[in-house]
Inverse folding.
C-alpha cells in the first residue's frame, strides 16, 4: 500500500524547488500559497495564465458528466451534503441504479459531447456485494468509448484493484478542506482515512481525481492549507475539482454566507500555479455563477467542467447554455476544433 500522510504546516516552510512533473512536484508551504492569495488579482491571473499556456491549449475544455448511481441515505455526516441521512433536505434514499439505466445515461452524455462519465454513490464505502455491480458498470461505460470515473467513498486496496481490473480510469475522492478545518464539517471519517483511500487508488494505478470545496466558512489560510495538501501529494492528482459550496436547505451549511466570487477565482488560479499539469475542474457552484465569472475561472486556468443539467442531486447549467458559452468564448471541447467566434454586434 502507498501510505500518504497529511503534512504538518511547520515542515513545509522551506524554499520550494519548482518542478513541473506530478512525480516530482514542487513543495509548497501554506505560507507561500497564502502569499499567492495576497497578490493583486491581475498579477495572480497573469501568472496562472502563463503557467496554463505552458502546458495546455488555453482555449480547450474537457467535459465530464456526472450520474448519481445511488442517491441519499448516506451514513456519513458531511455538513455540506444533502445526501447525508442526517440532512433534512428531502432527498429520498434510493437503491443502486440498474445497469441498463446507467448505460443509457452514459450514451446520452456521450451524444452531448462529454468525454468522461463519472458515477457517484452516497456511500461511506462500497460493500462487497456492490463491487460486482459497479465493476460491471465500469466495463459497460468504457465499452461505449467514454473515460470512466467513480466516486464511491472510502476504498480498501483490494477494491481499488478490482476497479482498476475493470478498467476504471479515474477515482474521485476529495480532501474537501484543510486538515485544521475538516473536523468542523465531518466527524464520521478522518482526514487520514481519506489519504489512505487516495493511497490505495494511486497504488492500484488509477488516475487520482481529488479536490475540495471552498465557501464553507473557512478562512483564507485554510483555503491555502487545502491547496497545499493537494499540491504536495506526490504525485499530485491528475484532476483537481474545485467546488464552490452549493448551500442546500436542510444541511448544516445551508446558511453559510457566500464566498467573494473573486476569492473563488483566486483559488482556481492558485490550483493552476501549484499543480501545473493537472486538469483543474470548475465543479459544483457553476449554476450560481454568471457567465463572466465562469470566463474568469477559465482565464485563471480551469480547463474542465461538469457538463449536463445535473450534478449529483443539485442542478448544473443546461448543456445547451454551456455550448453557447463555449461559442461566445471561442472555447473548443476536447477532441473538437475551436468554436467559431461570433461576429461582434
Ligand atoms: N459519497 C462519496 C464520498 O463522499 O466520498 C462520493 C460522493 S460525494 C457527494 C462527492 C463530493 O461532492 C464530496 O466530497 C464533496 O466535495 C462534493 N459535494 C457534496 N455536496 C456538495 C455541495 N453541497 N456543494 C459542493 N460540493 C459538494
Ligand atoms: C466533485 O468534486 N464534485 C462533484 C463530483 N466530485 C462527484 C459532486 C458535486 C456535488 C454537488 C452537490 C450535489 O449535486 O449533490
Ligand atoms: Fe455521504 Fe459522500 Fe455526502 Fe459525505 S459527501 S454524506 S460520504 S454522499
Amino acid at each position: 500500500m502507498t501510505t500518504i500522510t497529511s503534512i504538518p504546516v511547520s515542515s513545509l516552510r522551506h524554499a520550494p524547488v519548482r518542478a513541473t512533473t506530478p512525480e516530482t512536484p514542487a513543495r509548497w508551504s501554506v505560507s507561500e500559497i497564502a502569499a499567492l492569495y495576497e497578490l493583486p488579482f491581475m498579477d495572480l491571473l497573469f501568472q496562472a495564465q502563463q503557467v496554463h499556456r505552458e502546458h495546455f491549449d488555453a482555449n480547450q475544455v474537457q467535459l465530464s458528466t456526472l450520474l448519481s448511481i445511488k442517491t441519499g441515505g448516506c451514513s456519513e455526516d458531511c455538513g455540506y451534503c444533502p445526501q447525508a441521512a442526517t440532512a433534512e433536505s428531502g432527498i429520498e434514499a434510493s437503491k443502486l441504479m440498474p445497469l441498463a439505466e446507467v448505460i443509457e445515461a452514459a450514451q446520452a452524455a456521450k451524444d452531448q459531447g462529454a468525454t468522461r462519465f463519472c458515477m457517484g454513490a452516497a456511500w461511506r464505502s462500497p460493500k462487497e456485494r456492490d463491487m460486482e455491480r459497479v465493476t460491471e458498470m465500469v466495463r459497460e461505460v468504457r465499452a461505449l468509448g467514454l473515460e470512466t470515473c467513480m466516486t464511491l467513498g472510502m476504498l480498501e486496496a483490494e477494491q481499488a484493484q478490482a476497479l482498476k481490473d475493470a478498467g476504471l480510469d479515474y477515482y474521485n475522492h476529495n480532501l474537501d478542506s484543510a486538515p485544521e478545518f475538516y473536523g468542523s464539517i465531518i466527524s464520521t471519517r478522518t482526514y487520514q482515512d481519506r489519504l489512505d483511500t487516495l493511497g490505495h487508488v494511486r497504488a492500484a494505478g488509477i488516475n487520482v481525481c481529488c479536490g475540495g470545496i471552498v465557501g464553507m466558512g473557512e478562512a483564507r489560510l485554510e483555503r491555502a492549507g487545502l491547496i497545499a495538501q493537494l499540491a504536495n501529494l506526490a504525485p499530485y492528482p491528475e484532476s483537481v475539482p474545485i467546488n464552490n459550496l452549493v448551500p442546500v436547505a436542510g444541511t448544516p451549511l445551508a446558511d453559510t454566507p457566500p464566498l467573494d466570487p473573486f476569492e473563488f477565482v483566486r483559488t482556481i488560479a492558485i490550483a493552476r500555479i501549484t499543480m501545473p499539469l493537472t486538469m483543474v475542474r470548475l465543479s459544483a457552484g457553476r449554476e450560481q455563477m454568471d457567465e463572466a465569472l465562469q470566463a474568469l475561472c477559465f482565464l485563471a486556468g480551469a480547463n474542465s467542467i461538469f457538463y449536463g443539467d445535473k450534478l449529483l442531486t443539485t442542478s448544473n447549467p443546461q448543456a445547451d447554455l454551456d455550448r453557447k458559452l463555449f461559442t461566445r468564448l471561442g472555447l473548443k471541447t476536447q477532441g473538437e476544433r475551436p468554436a467559431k467566434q461570433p461576429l461582434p454586434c
User: Anything to note?
Assistant: Residues 28 and 228 are 6 Å apart (CA to CA).
